[in-house]
Amino acid sequence: MRVARFAGDDDPRYGVVGADGDTPIIAPLKGDPLYAPLELTGEKLALEDVRLLAPVIPRSKVVCVGKNYVAHAAEMGGNVPEEPLIFLKPNTSVIGPGEPIFYPKQSQDVHFEGELAIVIGRICRNLTAEDAPKVIYGYTVANDVTARDLQAKDGQWARAKGFDTFCPLGPWIETDFDPSDVRVRTTLNGETKQDGRTSDMVFDVTTILQYVTSFMTLLPGDVVLTGTPDGVGPMQAGDHVAVTIDGLGTLTNPVVADD
Amino acid sequence: MRVARFAGDDDPRYGVVGADGDTPIIAPLKGDPLYAPLELTGEKLALEDVRLLAPVIPRSKVVCVGKNYVAHAAEMGGNVPEEPLIFLKPNTSVIGPGEPIFYPKQSQDVHFEGELAIVIGRICRNLTAEDAPKVIYGYTVANDVTARDLQAKDGQWARAKGFDTFCPLGPWIETDFDPSDVRVRTTLNGETKQDGRTSDMVFDVTTILQYVTSFMTLLPGDVVLTGTPDGVGPMQAGDHVAVTIDGLGTLTNPVVADD
């Protein structure tokens, strides 16, 4: 099932994405499916008529794993860490599909990083390997936008990865998905820049969730980014960046100068 | 005015701390004063009869400044940064006064760091020096608990500073407070370990808020920690750590082994 969040008249609404014959539609839900039972309103809207938003705004945090693909760790000039390298992006950095990534004046080297994102469905701590899959609500596509120059300058990555708009998520959450071996591809203005497979992750989804919850409680709606394949590179204002994960969809965002 | 949050029968409640003659009392409020107009219920409770909680649970984030006192930067073996060094603690690390700091098995070197904390009252971005004070709801006391061994090992500080219980806040929020030159003192089992003054901060409250909001939107209830004076050191299970800021009060927490 694909669960999307979309702009309503007042507040955002949620819906299930499907098809009516050949027409992609969205069937609105009552309430937020992360916190309320799944109940359709009975409406049917053409998908092209609604504006999709980030499928989830984490109540608490976006937890990220750095250098989780061997070839990316190498292109960053380092080895793979012995344990997952964890950092945080604030929920204020989250935007949805189609929303602009603002290129900040403070940076001259803003990079894309296409990633698989896990959406947490249940409060959890100290997960076992057996229980880890049970707390996953679903998966979506993420772009861990990074000001590469500030990342090197600051040492801590909170600014370089925490700018408003630096965490595009979407287009929806897929609740039935096997993350073990899927293609993750990033294009810039249509040209392929990253092309990896999740099977090349150093630490898989279960291991990441076990590790993170060994020190930090995860809450429903928290999002965990699983690292980026090699091929990261710069974007410029005017560019369009798209991250595609097979079975999930494509997350596209324009890059716009922050004036 | 001192605004506290305390355990109610079901949900946490908020109240104004004061005195009835010589007896410290708390006058409960309707709703959360960060989001609702200030309205007393008319009740009066003895302060000693209520259990205080963290005065705020950030909806979004705890933003922290590292190495913001010259003498502390020196004891950490480094110079003062040219710009504020920003990192994040997750809101899941927040606890209140009296609640236990759990000493994790993953660390053998957990340190206290007493700090002044700013509580944000209004959504803000790109603050000017003139506007920065207007977004401050008040101030409270914080302990930026840090697993020093993991901080060095991981490079990124998300784990070392992000464990559940590693962000004690309290005992309340003081809304009328001049942060420019007050004493910040940390004791361990009654023995003074840190004794600094906020006038020794490298970057003052206004500069910190201008810097943080130059890249990140702050939301009502977000908390900004302003750095710790020198004298940081280890705690052990069984210890009691207390951070006192003149004009704000004392935040005391026991340290308990995480079994």
UniProtKB/TrEMBL annotation, chains A, B:
Gene Ontology biological-process entries: carboxylic acid metabolic process
One GO MF term: isomerase activity
InterPro entries: Fumarylacetoacetase-like_C, Fumarylacetoacetase_C_sf, Rv2993c-like_N
Residues covered by the Rv2993c-like N-terminal domain: 1-55
Superkingdom of origin organism: Bacteria
Domain named Fumarylacetoacetase-like C-terminal: residues: 61-256
Alphabetical keyword list: Metal-binding
Keyword presence, Metal-binding: yes
Record protein name field: 2-keto-4-pentenoate hydratase/2-oxohepta-3-ene-1,7-dioic acid hydratase (Catechol pathway)
Lineage of origin: Bacteria, Bacillati, Actinomycetota, Actinomycetes, Propionibacteriales
